[in-house]
Amino acid sequence: MTRVLRVMLAAAGSRAPQLRSTLWYSVAASAAQAAAYAAFLPLLVELTRGAPRAAAVWTWVAVIVGLVVAEGVLRVAESRFTYDHWHEVTEETRLRLGEKLREIPQQELGRRAAGDLATVVGANAANAASGASSLATLFVQFVTVPVVLLVVVLVVDPWVGLVVLVGFLATLPLLRTVQRTSLRGFGEVDRADAASAARLVEYVQGLPVFRATGQAGADSPRLAAALQDQHREMDAVSTGSDRAAAGMQLVVELTLAAVVAVGAVLVLAGDLTLALFTGIVVIVARFVQPLGLLPEIAKLFENSDASMRRIRDLDAVEPLPVAAGGRAPDRFDITFEGVSFRYDGAGEPALREVSLVVPERSITALVGPSGSGKSTVTRLITRFADPQHGTVAIGGVDLRTLDPRDVVGHVAVVFQDVYLFDDTVRANIAMSRPDATDDEIERAARAANAHDFVSALPQGYDTEVGEIGGRLSGGERQRLSIARAFLKDAPVLLLDEPTAALDVESEVAVQRALTRLAGGRTVLMIAHRLSTIAGADQVLVLDDGRIAQRGTHAELITERDGRYARLWAAQTAGRAAAGEADGA
Ligand code: ADP
């Protein structure tokens, strides 16, 4: 009982005081309800006297009516919480979680699937709030009414009261079983829900690939398995708690039967009047009714508690600590000193004692086979996570002394994949600086070679991306992303070879925009194709998390047996072969 209240008050967040008064209304309303039933007893006794006194009869009728009206009024006050605060509680929880998502380490975000997070912020937040609003009052009602009636019966006839008390106590372990199985069960259900939501997001995102490979439809084994698992967990909760609930219903019916039997014996012995006997049976029938429904409530409560726990889990994720002594960097070179980094849960480190310098206003290219650690280097520059050893610094300032949100302010990124939001082209560019004026947005678009194609769209900058999403070419999407970077105007620029997936024609336009963007900034570029490296001031060759070679392109190709020379040879050979094939 105290746990239920504690959980509910926690779920109500800043509305806990309102919930507290709501619960008092609920207690009062339930007490009035129970008292109305109790008042039925003296009325019955009066009516069955040899000569009923009209005044007494009407007094009791008035008391009953008064109590019923009082209950009604109190219930209205009680339901105010549901109407007034339910949405506020949900919204508050969601806003808090949203804020949390902004500050938790990117690594943690990456670890949790998008669908999983959506479940916490969406369904779990709503569940927790509905638990706090409607369940808490139901629970109070379903406990208060039986307790008041039990006291009444005990006073009227201790023997019958004892029978009811025994029945009441017998239901408690069963109720506990329902709670325990549901508690465990709903934890599993929530886990399964989150997993299937994650698989669903993954499936939808992967649809183009599934289509291309002819797998769309029933053939997503991961999704199917997750859905089956979800179904199984739901079934398990139902069967587990349903059995206990059925047991409880049986105890409740048996209690009623025992009351009738004991009452009959007492009536026959002349120790109980027929009127009181009838009244007690009515009261006990009313008493046991909520007990029969308690398992349902307990189940709903556990569901809401499971949601709360998932919310608490997310709440408990700490943002990366910000060490003292940080100052805003006043220059923008990037340095790694003996940086080793291992992803959470990974066996091998992704980076091993990497030291590098990207001088201010210069371009450094990172090359190396897939999995060699190139993306990890760029991630650490945005304070994705802190390295286990060594330091990463911008302008000589250790990133650990800077708030990750400030770090991100100094860094613009352009990736191969451009994510466009379902909003206007203008809003999509302004993503990187929501307070930008239309003028600034247009200037950024011009700099990114995007203005011409944007102007040619049906509503220009106000065209909804959703409506034309499929019509934007890869190069056009890429230029929108470059426009974002121009608008942000950050001194550090991270590029994950944005032209890698483009056709030659788009590549030229994007490359020109990129060259303009790179001017005067500190640029670190992941280069998959060696041809894009020619303009770099420095090339770093990564292999298995280590820097294997460094120098300029010209220096590295002359190192005969170096990795870079081999990569270069392989790529130029490939290109020559492709060129010959084209020519043929
Ligand atoms: P590259 O960009 O050169 O392809 P990455 O930096 O992405 O290489 O990866 C370096 C290593 O770290 C790889 O072994 C990869 O499997 C591992 N890795 C990358 N991202 C994660 C992650 N989120 N969790 C665990 N391991 C990861």
Give a description of the structure.
By secondary structure, this protein is an alpha/beta fold. It is 65% helix and 9% strand. The chain starts with a helix and ends with a helix. The protein is built from 19 helices and ten strands. Bound molecules: adenosine-5'-diphosphate. The site of adenosine-5'-diphosphate has 12 residues, from α10.
Short description:
The chain has 584 residues and is an alpha/beta fold. The chain has helices spanning 2-11, 16-38, 40-47, 54-103, 106-111, 114-156, 158-212, 221-268, 274-315, 374-381, 404-410, 425-430, 438-447, 451-455, 465-468, 474-488, 504-518, 553-558, 563-583, and strands at residues 334-341, 351-358, 363-367, 389-394, 397-398, 411-414, 492-496, 522-526, 538-543, 546-551. The chain has 19 helices and ten strands.
How is the secondary structure organized here?
Layout lengths: L1 H10 L4 H23 L1 H8 L6 H50 L2 H6 L2 H43 L1 H55 L8 H48 L5 H42 L18 E8 L9 E8 L4 E5 L6 H8 L7 E6 L2 E2 L5 H7 E4 L10 H6 L7 H10 L3 H5 L9 H4 L5 H15 L3 E5 L7 H15 L3 E5 L11 E6 L2 E6 L1 H6 L4 H21 L1
Parallel strand pairs: 3-8, 3-9, 6-7, 7-8
Antiparallel strand pairs: 1-2, 1-4, 4-5, 9-10
Helix pairs in contact: 1-2, 1-6, 2-4, 2-6, 3-4, 3-9, 4-6, 6-7, 6-9, 7-8, 7-9, 8-9, 13-16, 16-17
What bound compounds does this protein have? adenosine-5'-diphosphate
Beta strands, count: 10
Helix amount, in percent?
Answer: 55-70%
Query: Main sheet, how many strands, which sense, barrel?
Result: 6 strands, mixed
**Within the largest sheet, what's the order of strands?**
6-7-8-3-9-10
Helix run count: 19
Unreliable residue runs:
none
Structural class: alpha/beta
Distance between the termini: 82 Å
Q: Which range does the strand content fall in? A: 5-15%
Principal-axes shape call: elongated
The helix/strand series, from N terminus to C terminus, equals HHHHHHHHHEEEHEEHEHHHHHEHEEEHH
The residue-averaged pLDDT reads 85
From the alpha carbons, calculate the radius of gyration and give it in angstroms: 35 Å
